[in-house]
Amino acid sequence: MSVELKVNGRAVTVDVEPRTTLLDCVRDELGLKGTHAGCEHGVCGACTVLLDGQPTRSCLMFAVQADGYEITTIEGVAPQAGELDVIQDAFCEAHGLQCGFCTSGMILAARSLLEREASPTVEDIREAISGNICRCTGYGQIIEAIQLAAERMRGQNAPASPSLSRTEAVR
Amino acid sequence: MNAVESKTKFVSTDRRVREDRRFVVGRGRYVADIDLPGMLHVALVAAQHPAARIVSIDASRALALPGVHKVLTGAELVEAVNPLMNGLETPQVRRFPLAVGQVRYAGEWVAAVVADTRALAEDAAERVKVEYEKLGFVIDAEEAYTPQSTPVHPEHGSNVLLDKTFVWGEVERHFAEADQQLSFRVVWGRNSTVPIETFGVVASWDPWQEVLDVWASIQMPKYSDQIARSLRLPGNSIRVHQDVDVGGSYGVKRGIKHSVLVGHLARALGRPVRLIEDRLENMRAGDAHGPERIFDVDVAFNADGIVRSMKMRALDNVGAYAGRAPFQLGKPIGAIVGPYKIESVQYQAISVTTNKTVQEAVRGFGQAPTNYAIETAIDRVAETLGLDRIEIRRRNFIRHDEFPYLIPSGSTYDSGDYHTVVDKVLAHAGYDDLVAERDRLRAEGMLAGIGIAACLEPSGGNSSFEPLLNDKNTTSTWMDSCRIMVDALGTVTATVHTTSSGQGHETLVATVVGEVLQIDPDLIRIVRPDTLSSLPSNSPVGSRMAIMLGGAAFKAAEKVKAKMVAIAAHAMGVPIETANYVDGTVRTADGREMAWEAIVNMAHRQFHALPEGMDPGLASDHIMQVPTGVQLPKDDKVQMYPCHSFEFHLILVAIDPLLGKPEIRRYVIGHDCGTVINPHIVRGMTLGGIAHGLGAALLEEFAYDAEGQLLTQSFMDYLLPSSHEVPDVEIVHHCTPSPLTVLGQKGSGESGYLGSPAAISGAINDAVRPLGIHFTRLPMRISAISDAIAEAGPTMTQEEI
Ligand code: FES
Ligand code: FES
C-alpha cells in the first residue's frame, strides 16, 4: 500500500506491504542505511529514529503508522555534506563510539535529550541512552561526548576546539 | 612517559580517531547495507530437537510459493562442499553449514530457503516440513566426559575432542614441600560477545571470471582460504571485500558456515545471495557462543602466602562441533601463572562436545575464564591465611627487575612493573578510604565488598597454541602487512589488509606512518584492498594489531624514508649517512636540502637521476613476523605471545541484602599496555572490555533447560549491560614499554574484559563472606545472590536492618 512519509524534512511516498516495519521501509525503500537493525525486538535501540523529536524504535512500528509524523534519521542530522553538527562532532572529539553500529541511535537519543534539557546531569544522560545498547564502549566516552555537546551547545557559536581539555590518564 | 613517547609527534597524542567521522553521520558501510541487483535472500529452517535423525524433508509447500527459488538441504550440500575446518585432528567430527543426516543441537540449520525477499524466505521456511526421529543427547560437560555418554558424533566414538595434561616443573615436589594446600571449583557460564550487529554475508559468483565476490561482517584469520577449501575453488577465485565495516565482533564474527552456504548458493543459482542473521538465528545457531568452563584448582602455598604450585583442570563445553574453539584452552597456557611467580603448574585441558550451540572465539580467547580461576585461587589463599588480598599479590608478583621472565609453560614475559601499577591505583583510589567506605556500608546494614584482580593480557601472538595442542599443525607465523605508496603528486596512501570492527586500524596506520615520515597523519589516505590485491594478514585477533599492523606500517614507512634519503643524498652528492631526514625534507651536513616534492618527483620521473640499481617509484611493503614467533613447541612448552600487558582492578560493590542487586560504587583500573598509540582507542577498549566483563560476571548466560533447549534466545532474557549497569570507570595509566616492538607498544584489544569478571566476583564474595557464602559460578545473577543471602542469614540481615 502507498504511504506518505515526511523524512528529514522531505515528503516521500512509498509503496509497502502493511507488515513492513518503519525500519525496513527507511532502509530498503528510502535507502537510508544509517538506521540499523540490531535485535528487531525493541531492546537494543540501534534502529532509533526521531518521530516528532521523540526517540522511537523503528523496528517496533509499521511504516504505515508513521504517517503524519516528522521522521528524523541520522542522515537528517548533519547540516550539510562534509559538515558535522555539534553532537556528531562531540562524538568524534570524545571517541564516543567504536564500531559505529549503535551510534546513529545514540546520537538521535542524545539530540532528543539536548533539545529538552540544556544542562543534563550524568544521570539524565544515562537515562536518556539507557534504551540504546552499546557493546563496544562501555558508555563512558558516549556520556562524555554528550556532556561535551551540551557544553558546546550552551555556549553556541564558540568554535569547536580540540583544546577543550579531557585528561586522558586519570579522570 | 618513556623515552619513546616523549620523542613522538603523533603517537600517544590525543588525536581524533579518523574512522569516527563516517559513523557519526550514518555512513558506515555494513554488510546489510550492500544491495546488489538481483540479490536473493536466505532464511533458515531450524532443528527443534537437540539430537535427532533427519527422516525426511518436504519442501514442496515452500517451493510452491511464487518467488521462492530454492530449498537446500544438508544432503544436497554435502555433495558439493568439503567439511569446514577443525583445529584439532578430529576428522570424524564433520561439520557442514547445514545438518547432514542428523541434527546435533536445537536450532541447528536443517535447510536454507532462498527467495526474492527475506520476508518471503521466512514465510517459506515455515512451510518446510521436517520429520525427525529423536536421539539421545547430552548437555552437561561432566556427563559428556564420561565414556558412557551419548556421543554427539557417533563416528568420533566419544565426546572428548581434547584431553591433554601438561606438567611444567616439579609440581609434586612443590606440593609436598608447601605448608598448605587448598582446592576449589569455579564455573564460567556460557556467554558470548553478542555484537549489536548480527553476522551477515553477501556473495556473488561471476562464472565468466570464475570469481566469488564476498562481503561479510567478518573478523577471521584465513577467511578466504577456508571458503576456497570448502567450496573446492582455487584460492584466487575468492575475493573478499575488506572495506566492509563490521558492527562489533570481539572475536566471534567468524561465520564460516554462513559464508560457505551463501557462496555455494550464489554459484548454484547464478544470482547474488545474502544471509543476514536475525537475532534469534544469531543467538541460537550463529555458532558464536563463548567458552563454558569448569575449573578444578588445587594450590600449594606457604604460610607467608607465597604460592608454590598449582594444578588446574579445565573442562570446556564446546557444543556440537569442534571448529577452532578447543584452542581456547590453549592460549591461556601463555599466561597460566598470571602475574605471579608460581614455580610449577599442572594443567589438564579437556574439551568435550555436547548438544549445545557451537562455540567460537571470544575476546581473550579463553584467557578471561582462566584469569577468573587464578584470581579466585589467590583470594582463597589470602582468606585461608588471613592475609590482605593486595599484600599477597604483591608478595607473589614478578618484580620489575626480573623481566624478561620465563614462566614454567615456556613463555617469556617481555616487561612489566606490577608493583608500581598497584601502588598508583591504591594511591589514586585512596585505598584506606575505600576500605573505610566498605566498612561504613556494612555498618549501615548493606553487604559491601572490595574486589581485586591482577592479570595479564598476552598480545600479538603467532597462534602457537595450534601446534601445542595439535602436533600435526606446524604454524609458527601469524604475520601482518602494510603497503605504502607515495604517488607522483607526493600524497601518501597506506593499506590495511583486513576488515575492522571498531578497533581504529585506519587511525593506527595513519598515526604510525605519519610518525615515521614526520607528516600529518590526517593527510594520509588509508585503503583496504580486497583479498586478491592484499598482502597477508591474520585479522585483528589476539590483541595483535598495535603490535603487528602497527609494526608492519612502521617498517614499511622506514623503507620509504630510507629510499627518499638515498635518492636525495645521491642527488646532492653526499654519503647517505650524512644526510638527515627532517619533516619530509632531506638535509645535508653543510646546510643544503632537498624537499619532499623534489624527491618524489625524482623517484617517479627521473630514473636517470636515481642511484644506480635503484628501482623507480616510491612504494614499499612490509610483511611482519611476530616478534618472538620462531620456534615450534618443544617438550610441551612454547613461547605463546610476545607482549604482556598488565591490568589491576580495584572495585567496591554494595548489595542491598533484601534486593540482592550488586551495585558497583567505585571502579578503578590500572592499565599498562606499553606505549599507547592512540589514547582514545585504548581507553575505549578498556572501558568496553570492563562493561563486557560485567555482563559475563552478572548478567549474561546462554542457559539451557534439561530438554536441551536454549532458554535465552533474545535480548529479553539474555541481558546486555546498559548505561544503568555500567559504572563510571577511572583508569590509571602506566607505561612499561615492550622491548620487542617498534614503539614499545603492547596489545589492548582485550583489556578490561580479562580481569573485570574476576574483580566483580572477588568483590561480591568479599561482601557475602560474613554470611559464610562463596559464589563459585558466573554469572552471579541477582536471583542467585538474593536466594543465597536469604538462605544464609535471614536473622542477621534482619537484625542489621
Ligand atoms: S533493532 Fe529495534 S530495538 Fe533493536
Ligand atoms: S560503537 Fe559498537 S555497539 Fe556502540
From TrEMBL, chain A:
CDD domains referenced in this protein's UniProt entry, alphabetically: fer2
Regions crossing the membrane: none
2Fe-2S ferredoxin-type domain sequence ranges: 1-77
The name this protein goes by in its record: (2Fe-2S)-binding protein
GO molecular function: 2 iron, 2 sulfur cluster binding; metal ion binding; oxidoreductase activity
Record keywords, A-Z: 2Fe-2S, Iron, Iron-sulfur, Metal-binding, Oxidoreductase
TrEMBL record, chain B:
Superkingdom, taxonomy of origin: Bacteria
Sequence ranges assigned to domain Aldehyde oxidase/xanthine dehydrogenase a/b hammerhead in this UniProt record: 25-136
Cross-referenced SUPFAM superfamilies: CO dehydrogenase molybdoprotein N-domain-like (SSF54665), Molybdenum cofactor-binding domain (SSF56003)
A molecular-function term among this protein's GO annotations: oxidoreductase activity
UniProt xrefs under Pfam families: Ald_Xan_dh_C, MoCoBD_1, MoCoBD_2
Keywords: Molybdenum, Oxidoreductase
InterPro entries to which the protein is assigned, alphabetical: Ald_Oxase/Xan_DH_a/b, Ald_Oxase/Xan_DH_a/b_sf, Ald_Oxase/xanthine_DH-like, AldOxase/xan_DH_MoCoBD1, AldOxase/xan_DH_MoCoBD2, AldOxase/xan_DH_Mopterin-bd_sf
Transmembrane segments: none
Gene3D superfamilies according to UniProt: Aldehyde oxidase/xanthine dehydrogenase, a/b hammerhead, Aldehyde oxidase/xanthine dehydrogenase, molybdopterin binding domain
Segments forming a coiled coil: none
Protein name: Xanthine dehydrogenase family protein molybdopterin-binding subunit
